[in-house]
Amino acid sequence: MKILGTEVSFKSETDHDTVERAKILVEERYNTLYTPGMPISKEKMLIFLVLGLADDYLQTSDKLQALEERLERLTSRVAGCTEKDSSSQE
Q1: 72: number of CA atoms within 13 Å, CB side?
Q2: Least packed by Cβ within 10 Å: which of 6, 9, 12, 79?
Q3: Please, what's the b/e burial string for 2-35 (b: 16 or more CB within 10 A of its CB; e: otherwise)?
Q4: How far is CA 33 from CA 2, 15, 30, 38, 54, in A?
Q5: How deeply is 60 buried, as exposed, middle or buried, from its count of CB atoms within 10 A (0-12, 13-18, 19+)?
Q6: Cβ contact 32:49 at 8 Å
Q7: Strand, helix or coil for residue 8
Q8: Residue 76's pLDDT is what?
Q9: Which class for 51: exposed (0-12), middle (13-18), buried (19 or more C-beta within 10 A)?
Q10: What's the pLDDT at 79?
């Protein structure tokens, strides 16, 4: 597989479509950052790319954690309401 003009080979438990989507994302992000004639090495450009993707991951992870905590609170509230309803019916 070629990514950003470099041939890479690796084993992954991830299916081919997911790897292809990841490749496309990396190449799109790289092309967004890359400006022809810009005096910056490919290595530095890749570092910026990785930092951007890591930032996206961390923000998404924080949002997921907040959603999971909210879901847990809502589940507890629903369970509390269900318990009140069943004890009032007795």
Answers
A1: 6
A2: 9
A3: eeeeeeeeeeeeeeeeeeeeeeeebeebbeeeee
A4: 19, 28, 5, 10, 15
A5: exposed
A6: no
A7: coil
A8: 92
A9: exposed
A10: 87
Chain position carrying tokens 């950003």: 4
Q: What is the pLDDT of residue 81?
A: 85
Q: Which two tokens stand for residue 50?
A: 């990785």
Mean pLDDT by runs of 10 across the 90 residues of the chain is 86 90 90 81 87 95 98 92 70
What burial class does residue 67 get, using C-beta atoms within 10 Å of its C-beta: 0-12 exposed, 13-18 middle, 19+ buried?
exposed
Taking CB atoms within 8 Å and a gap of at least 24, the contacts of 71-78 are: none
